[in-house]
Amino acid sequence: MDEVGRGALFGPVVAGAVILPEPLPAMLIEAGVTDSKRLTPAVRARLVPLIQDVAIAHAIGIASVAEIDRLNILQATFLAMRRAIARLDPEPHQCLVDGNRPIPHLAIAQQTLIKGDQISLSIASASILAKVWRDTLIIRLEKRYPGYFLESNKGYGTAAHCRAIAQLGTTRQHRRSFKLGHSGLNSSAALCMPLDLKP
Hints:
This protein is an alpha+beta fold. The protein has one domain: Nucleotidyltransferase, domain 5 (2-Layer Sandwich). Helix content is about 40%, strand content about 15%. Helix 2 crosses helix 6 and helix 3 crosses helix 4.
């Protein structure tokens, strides 16, 4: 289990969940499956069908911008994770979670792994599926919301994105619970931070 988009200003937070067979498929290791942030977009795209083919099950869960603003980003991330797990068939007997925070209200056993996407093949696989799914969505949304450089920033708070917010304002897909700096943003260094990261 892993998530992507937690720190973005725009779009949903997305969780990926993958069940791999045992012993772990050597072909995934040989193909270079690792933390999605360490891979190029082309490599991630190439790995997605390979992961899907060898996985016992895989699923995506999302939490919308409205849910992020209503719940806060941390709780919305947990919601996306629970939704991904609920879509797995068969249901896992244990969940490996990237990071140091267990998922609240989860009926199955779980183990947190700091930097899990670098040490667990299943977490790395989940991170790749979630990253490619979310990036594809954000690129599609750029056609609906032009001017924010979404294809290159994927909704994160780059200087160009923040300048666009200052000039164009926010859209329905911008997280209003984040300090987006649309009023009086004069510096590209004033990049948005979540108002509430507490549970």
